[in-house]
Amino acid sequence: MHRNNFGFLRLLFATLVIVSHSAELIDGNRSREPLTNLFGVLTFGELAVDGFFLISGYLVVQSFERSDSTLNYLMKRIRRIYPGFLVAYFVCVFVIAPWVGNDLATMSFGDLASVIRKALFLREPPKVYGFAGLPYPPLNGAMWTIHEEFRCYLLVILFGLIGIYRNKWVLALMTTALLALMEMKFDPGFSEVIGDPYSVRFLGIFCVGSLFYQLQNSIPYNTAIAAAVTVALAFCLYNSIIAESAFAVLGGYLLFWFALHLKSTVLQTINGKDDISYGVYLYAWPVQNAIIFFFGIKSPGTLTLLTLPLVYIIGYASWRFIERRFVRNKMTAPLATPKP
Length: 340
Hints:
Elements lengths: L5 H22 L6 H6 L4 H23 L3 H30 L9 H12 L23 H18 L6 H16 L6 H4 L3 H18 L8 H14 L6 H19 L3 H5 L7 H19 L4 H28 L13
Helix pairs in contact: 1-3, 1-13, 1-14, 3-4, 3-6, 3-9, 3-11, 4-6, 4-13, 4-14, 7-9, 9-11, 10-11, 13-14
């Protein structure tokens, strides 16, 4: 069992994604999403995915610095992310897609090649297959973040080779620049000048987590500061311009205070030994959509209550029978995105 609360946080974030998606998957209406109702800006799903990338930035850079070689680091990341993803991906395409009315008999060789290519590049299943008639019909609309996370893993190698992690000021300046670019998502010309705003967003938040790791011995963590940061963050979450950056920095402080400095045997036990969070994240979307598709559920609360036990069981099976076989005794840093 790990002597921290990261496992609990990963499972909490995976659960918050389910809570957040339950409202929107039913009718495409975000207005019933709990956090949006409270602050009017971010959803629980967006906050949870940002939390995943914060944790990932911390733990993956730690893994990189503790690895014997770059190849050793890369293999650990591949073993951790690919097996669970590939199984979930092909379950979606070859089990769930036919089950919800998609005729795979018409799949051409080119179609099959596209399916395999998307799997190898950690993309979501082709949108031509899905839950016809639902507001969000893709087989698994949450898988796209896994590609973004793995890209961050590869950039860790680049940043390590050019010496960014050897200079905390350089990392801090790069992180600040990325957060500033992230807020330019409100500029209509952003995509034309910078590129995919989601890639910038996730890399920026990942780097915030990495900076917290590099400054771990310099940042004072205590309950009084955590309380003050909580109040400041609550005010910032009402502002659409700075909400996400504020969560990355202020929420990052709270996250790492909670994970590393709040001592609780109970919290350390939850999702500590058997890490089901990745499987929960990978299977939640298709399970939720399948429940809506077959049973016509209209209540977000009912959908959440029906989904949680099912995906916890599936997540446990994914860990025990697939993921664990590749990471057992490998000293692999825990995956942060159980993987929106």
